[in-house]
């Protein structure tokens, strides 16, 4: 198979779990709808009818995959769901989640957000012992470990399996009569607990609770395992204490601004970081404009702090997906044009500060600078509301390889020249934490900006190739 046929391990995603609600699948659907920004490649829901699990998964957007007649068939009072992020490989239905299996303990569904860093090694050991894999997803490794684990209760097996792996996971498991939620000891990825009347729900972000009309209860704590069954909710802390390393990129880019993540509202963090960016890299200008939507809260903060008028100089077409996840480079480059359009009326003869949340390859910024100049801006000053992205994420954010990250090998001046801006400034490493009081613990993972990896990783593990394809998906 060519390299397009490769796929990466499980990447940035959304998960949901519902227990004890007559319309569990419907609630899961609402949660996935609210969490669409965390994954647009595929989506799935598994419900428990009490005696069996029922699954529906598909490629594409939540609203297209779950027609009303499908949701009606997902009967039962418990359900889990998953949105999967696009990767650079082919979209593979077999990697869509939740994964479901039937093993000696019964039927089991699993949905995972994160990335198991030693999945390759563990998988090789399992294969040596005769295990057969269906997908190249790291989540399947966990399923095998569960199936092999001894233990009376499902949760004992889950804990034994999770003890054997290292990495980032916010996971939900569904058996016919239990919902289990687990967050890794370092707490890389978010996971929150909520209530809808008597039902319990767990979701990646609180914006999903809002759509479900659920009450926010608390975060699932790093290293916590929750078992939800007809006996109620049980909280276990089965892993050795570890330093917490929550993903700061959730604040920078990934989470929705209206969500409360790691105890803070994402909007207010971005706004504060925008203010910090203005303090660190002020420039004389006539207007501040965001790269919508990701740069909006930061640009507002920047404009307020700098005392420069805020204008929407770039208008976004909301019906186009995020450029970054388009399948090929050529489409991605084209995508910036499709997605954003400049306002000549606002730009003509103006010195413009453009604020974006992050700069990855630099192609977006390059197009935007050209677009603003084309619309008449006399100066374009690019401001990035995070430090240079220099290192890939191995804990569940879909980033390009180190070579593709322009910040890994180029100076800020070289990047400025590449994107064609009059000036370019990033937030400093120190400034990235302007949202925290100075005496608060830095309990975040910022490896993408610092290359300091909380869990050691072997550099750029080669994605595993699959040699099994559905006829509808294989390249001819
Ligand atoms: P680039 O053109 O590669 O520099 O991409 C930068 C743009 O991608 C910024 O506008 C970000 O908002 C966005 N971005 C950053 N990280 C991600 C990600 N993991 N997935 C999708 N988009 C991203």
Brief account:
The chain is of the alpha+beta class. It is built from 16 helices and 23 strands.
What does this structure look like?
The protein has 476 residues and is an alpha+beta fold. It folds into 2 domains: 7-244, Glutamine Phosphoribosylpyrophosphate, subunit 1, domain 1 (4-Layer Sandwich), CATH 3.60.20; 250-254 and 264-473, Rossmann fold. The chain is built from 16 helices and 23 strands. The strands form 6 sheets. It has a 7-stranded antiparallel beta sheet, with helices on one face. A 6-stranded antiparallel beta sheet has the order 5-6-7-8-12-13, with helices on one face. Helix 9 (266-280) crosses helix 10 (296-306). The longest helix has 15 residues, at 266-280. Residues 1-10 have low confidence and may be disordered. Adenosine monophosphate binds at residues 253, 291, 294, 322, 324-325, 356-365, 397-399.
Write the layout of secondary structure elements.
Elements lengths: L12 E7 L4 H11 L7 E7 L4 E7 L2 H4 L2 H6 L4 E7 L14 E5 L2 E11 L2 H10 L9 H11 L5 H10 L3 E8 L4 E5 L8 E5 L2 E5 L2 H7 L2 E5 L5 E5 L2 E5 L9 E2 H7 L5 E2 L2 E2 H15 L6 E4 L5 H11 L7 E3 L12 H11 E3 L1 H4 L3 E6 L6 H12 L4 E6 L21 H4 L2 H8 L3 E4 L17 E2 L1 H4 L26
Parallel strand pairs: 14-23, 17-20, 20-21, 21-22
Antiparallel strand pairs: 1-4, 1-10, 2-3, 2-4, 5-6, 6-7, 7-8, 8-12, 9-10, 9-11, 12-13, 15-16, 18-19
Helix pairs in contact: 1-7, 4-5, 5-6, 9-10
The site of adenosine monophosphate has 19 residues, from helix 13.
Provide keyphrases for this structure:
476 residues, alpha+beta, Rossmann fold, six-stranded antiparallel beta sheet, 24% strand, elongated, disordered N terminus, binds adenosine monophosphate
């Amino acid at each position: 198979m060519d390299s397009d046929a490769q796929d990466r391990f499980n990447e940035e995603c959304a998960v949901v779990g519902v227990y004890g609600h007559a319309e569990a699948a419907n609630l899961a659907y609402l949660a996935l709808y609210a969490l669409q920004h965390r994954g647009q490649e595929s989506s799935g829901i598994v419900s428990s009818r009490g005696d069996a699990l029922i699954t529906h998964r598909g490629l594409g957007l939540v609203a297209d995959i779950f027609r009303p007649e499908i949701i009606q068939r997902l009967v039962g009072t418990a359900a889990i769901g998953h949105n999967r992020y696009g990767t650079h490989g082919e979209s593979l239905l077999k990697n869509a989640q939740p994964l479901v299996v039937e093993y000696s303990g019964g039927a089991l569904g699993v949905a995972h957000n994160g990335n198991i860093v030693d999945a390759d090694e563990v998988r090789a050991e399992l294969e040596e012992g005769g295990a057969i894999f269906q997908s190249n997803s790291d989540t399947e490794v966990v399923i095998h470990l569960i199936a092999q684990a001894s233990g009376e209760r499902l949760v004992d097996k889950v804990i034994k399996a999770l003890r054997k792996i290292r990495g980032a996971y916010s996971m939900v498991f569904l058996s016919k009569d239990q919902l289990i939620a687990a967050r890794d000891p370092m707490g890389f990825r978010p996971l929150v607990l909520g209530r809808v009347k008597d039902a319990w729900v767990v979701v990646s972000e609180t914006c999903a609770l809002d759509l479900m009309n659920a009450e926010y209860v608390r975060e699932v704590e790093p290293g916590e395992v929750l078992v939800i069954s007809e006996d109620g909710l049980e909280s276990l802390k089965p892993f050795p204490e570890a330093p917490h390393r929550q993903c700061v990129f959730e604040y920078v880019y990934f989470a929705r601004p209206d969500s409360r993540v790691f105890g803070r509202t994402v909007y207010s963090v971005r706004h504060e970081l925008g203010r910090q960016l203005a303090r660190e890299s002020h420039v004389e200008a006539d207007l501040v404009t965001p790269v919508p939507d990701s740069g909006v809260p930061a640009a507002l903060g920047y404009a307020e702090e700098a005392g420069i008028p805020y204008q929407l100089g770039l208008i976004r077409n909301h019906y186009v997906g995020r450029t970054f996840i388009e399948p090929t480079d050529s489409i991605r480059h084209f995508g910036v044009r499709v997605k954003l359009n400049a306002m000549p009326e606002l730009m003509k003869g103006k010195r413009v500060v453009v604020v974006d949340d992050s700069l990855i390859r630099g192609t977006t910024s390059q197009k935007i600078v050209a677009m603003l100049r084309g619309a008449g801006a006399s100066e374009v000053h690019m401001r990035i509301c995070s430090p240079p992205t220099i290192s890939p994420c191995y804990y569940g954010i879909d980033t390009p390889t180190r070579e593709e990250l322009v910040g890994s090998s180029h100076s800020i001046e070289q990047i400025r020249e590449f994107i064609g801006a009059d000036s370019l400034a990033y937030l400093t490493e120190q400034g990235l934490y302007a949202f925290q009081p100075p005496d608060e613990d830095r309990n975040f993972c910022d490896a993408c900006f610092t290359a300091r990896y909380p869990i050691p990783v072997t550099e750029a593990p080669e994605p595993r190739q699959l040699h099994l394809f559905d006829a509808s998906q294989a390249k001819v």
